[in-house]
Amino acid sequence: MGERWEPPAAPERAIEAVVFDAYGTLLDVHSAVLRHAVRLGPEAAAFSQEWRVKQLEYSWVRSLTGPSRHQDFWACTVEALRFVCARYSLRDASLIQDLLDAYRRLDAYPEVPAMLRALKAKGTRTAILSNGTPMMLVEATTASGIATLLDALLSVEAVGIFKPDPRVYALAEHRLGLPAARMMFVSANAWDTQAALAAGYQAIRINRNNAPDEYGLEAAGVPSLTDLSSLPDLVS
């Protein structure tokens, strides 16, 4: 007897939009401190890292303790800086204000503009889905020169809770009018990547520092890139 005929496998659905995390993925969160590293001294790098960790911690705690405790990401950023300044005994009001101003105008990673242009040339829609407030996202993308390369800036403020709550990832589906399976989600945060994968996106992790695998992403087949330059090649 001959082999049983089976219909050919359906082709994978093409990616119609790429949705990016903003802070740490497209925008270098440490560039604010880097601009003032000389004024901060030899502990500038550690200062920046603690600021970032505390910023995220405050967002998660406010989400977990309920809607009445929600404050936006700018408030979390300011509170986190206040804490770290106290830890490092930094009392220079002028420097503190300069750090906050710099955070509103973070640098994009060097490969980001060319990568976004390559996606647009393919006809792929591009968007940000971020913890940042709408104003933070407008200011940062404008200052970094990538605003015109993005079709949508989506803020968690539309749902009133931070990542990795599932409602955040559903926001992109609603606003872009596409199911998650037809979108690629790109983040430098492993926890963010895992949440997007759980929400049905085709997820990509950006791992600039060769950090260990987390959340079983490698076993789940999630690609890991050292930067964003080769991303357009993964978009069919």
Describe this protein's structure.
It is a single chain. The chain has helices at about 30-35, 35-40, 45-65, 75-85, 95-105, 110-120, 135-145, 165-175, 190-200, and strands at about 15-20, 125-130, 150-155, 185, 200-205, 225. About 40% of the residues lie in helices and about 10% in strands. It has about 240 residues and is an alpha/beta fold. The chain contains nine helices and six strands. Helix 3 (about 45-65) crosses helix 4 (about 75-85). Strand 4 (about 185), helix 9 (about 190-200) and strand 5 form a beta-alpha-beta unit.
Please, what is the CATH homologous superfamily of the largest domain? HAD superfamily/HAD-like
> What is the percent of helical residues?
40-55%
CATH topology of the largest domain: Rossmann fold
Strand order of the largest sheet: 3-2-1-4-5-6
Describe the structure using short key phrases.
alpha/beta; DNA polymerase, domain 1; 2 domains; 6 strands; 11% strand
Produce a short descriptive summary.
The chain has 236 residues and is of the alpha/beta class. 41% of the residues lie in helices and 11% in strands. It has 2 domains: 17-28 and 107-234, Rossmann fold, CATH 3.40.50.1000; 31-103, Putative phosphatase, domain 2 (DNA polymerase, domain 1, Orthogonal Bundle), CATH 1.10.150.
How are the SSEs ordered, and which strands pair?
Elements: E1 17-20, H1 31-35, H2 37-40, H3 44-64, H4 73-87, H5 93-103, H6 112-121, E2 125-130, H7 134-143, E3 152-155, H8 166-176, E4 183-187, H9 190-198, E5 202-206, E6 224-225
Parallel strand pairs: 1-2, 1-4, 2-3, 4-5, 5-6
Helix pairs in contact: 3-4
